[in-house]
Amino acid sequence: MSLKLPAPDDMASPGPESGAPGSGAPDAAAPEGAAAPASTPAPAAKAAVPGAKVRLRALDGLRLVAALMVCFYHLSFRGSAGWQRSPLHVFPHLSHVSAYGPLGVQFFFIISGFVICMSGWGRTVRVFAISRISRLYPAYWAALVVVTAVLYFLGERTVSRTDFLTNFTMLQTPAGAERVLGVSWTLWAEARFYVLFAVAVLWRGATRKRVLGFCALWTVAALYADSSDQEFLKVALMPEYAPFFIGGIGLYMLRRYGHDLLTWGVVASGFLLGQHYAVKGLVAPPGAHAAFERSATVVIAAVAAGFAGVALVTLFRPVADVDWRWLTTAGALTYPFYLVHEILGTLMIGKLRAHTGLSDYEVLAVTVLAMLLLAYLIHRLVERPLTPLLRRLLTKQANGLGAARPARESA
């Protein structure tokens, strides 16, 4: 399982959705559900939080928390390959906590809903699309190449050449190709959200009425899709993830316009439906035999904590106005860390166990730190130079396409 995403451009996180999701400072880096560089400052808003800043550094920090949840799930609960035995035996206590790590993905989607609504506000579809592409692809391409190269040189199994090339499009999931990066399935969910939001909201310009209408229609349509046997509708409308994106959008509307019953209703419906799908997806049904049985109560509490956490860091002024720059740096690492941690982390665990005398907990700690260091290198050496370069090239190309057509030649 995996997650996140980058953060959007106007956000306080350097990553794809704001990030992502997966999620940075202007032109910084940081799925998603995580901030991309800001090319157009967010319009002045009737913020629910007086004096609120465009950059929400605490939200950057929350993105890293979500990424670490997914990481510990992969490395200390699900990943038996590196440990050569079940992590439930390696980490008898930690694994019982990290079993709930997949919810980090849903947390990313809540953050993504907030950040994409914020970063897209006042932008055209063209500008929005360029910002997302330039934010998401450089780190993704770098992770794709690095992971494949490491697998190849270590003699591990890699995907076929044709699937490897297909992965560069980030459309390997709908194309039916094998994924190089296991967590990249969440980027496909983020991409569908971007398309829905761009077509339904940004195409005619974001307004409060249009955004709230979009949330209501998407909720109803997603529920219909879930109850139907039409696979296309389920893929397009994502009923199991829609409540989290919608809840995040609702939280941004509260920040922008203040508290009102209708908007809180959007957030509440996102939580109520979201916890249903989270329990359905993570809790084994009665009678099923699972190595570890998750508690529905804990899943519900964790989803509630995710919504409450995003609300706290965006609507509660003392937290929303936190200006600790290291949080932005942490957010910038989220997206590349999310992309590389699963496969490379598992390989590193195996090597450390075979060639060092470190304890299992020390191996886990060293591996996580190493993945954060690699994420920092990708951010500094790839994202920071290539994101603005790609954005400039795409903007120039888009401007060229939009230029006036040459006068027709005279007969």
Helix and strand topology:
Blueprint: H1 57-78, H2 80-83, H3 87-90, H4 94-98, H5 103-120, H6 125-153, H7 161-167, H8 172-175, H9 185-202, H10 208-227, H11 231-237, H12 242-257, H13 261-282, H14 296-315, H15 317-320, H16 325-355, H17 360-402
Helix pairs in contact: 1-5, 1-16, 5-9, 5-12, 5-14, 6-16, 6-17, 10-11, 10-12, 12-13, 12-14, 13-14, 16-17
Rg over alpha carbons: 21 Å
Please state the overall shape, judged from the principal axes of the Cα atoms. globular
Looking at how many chains there are and whether they match, the oligomeric state comes to single chain
Number of helices: 17
The helix/strand order is: HHHHHHHHHHHHHHHHH
Structural class: mainly alpha
The stretches of 5 or more residues where confidence is low (pLDDT under 50) are: 1-53
Estimate nothing, just give the exact number of structural domains. 1
Overall pLDDT confidence: 87
The proportion of residues in beta strands is under 5%
> What is the straight-line distance between the termini?
63 Å
* Helical residues, percent: 55-70%
Largest sheet: none
Total E-strand runs: 0
